[in-house]
Amino acid sequence: MVVFLPGFWERPAASREGVSVEYEEYCREGVSRALASGHRTFLIGADALGKKSGWMLASDHIALFGTGALAGPNDDRVGPRFPNLRGLYLIPGQGHSAGVVMGVPRIALATGAELSGFPCDALVPESALDMAIVAGHGGARVVFALRCRTTELPAVKDFSFLNRIVREIEGGEE
Known about the structure:
7 strands, Rossmann fold, alpha/beta
């Protein structure tokens, strides 16, 4: 499993021996390098504006803005021109909050108006959503963990959720 987290987040650790938790640069190119190395399970984290404060896992996404990760010439070595992204998102374990996310160009400028104007549960940085799409293009599965704030409440500061997710992924990874 390869983990991609914003630089200021706490890092989870592998919970049992023999399980490789690698960290890669937080960008689309980092995802491409991990795919080229044969990795097919990713944990990608991002800050988000949500309907509820706390941790949420993406179950699907809406991409309306920008050109997107799949624009431009296709690299057939990575995957097909128009990949089927059904089943891209993993929801390990049980009882986790999950929902549909929508990518926005700048999360710092996102407001409750965008959140209430679209059928989604959280707004995420387009750059983080692009990383998940690139992973899906290469045939990978993604746990997209979102640290949500609301328009009234700040994001949680407790990162123990990530350790729990890593343990759950490890238990289910082949």
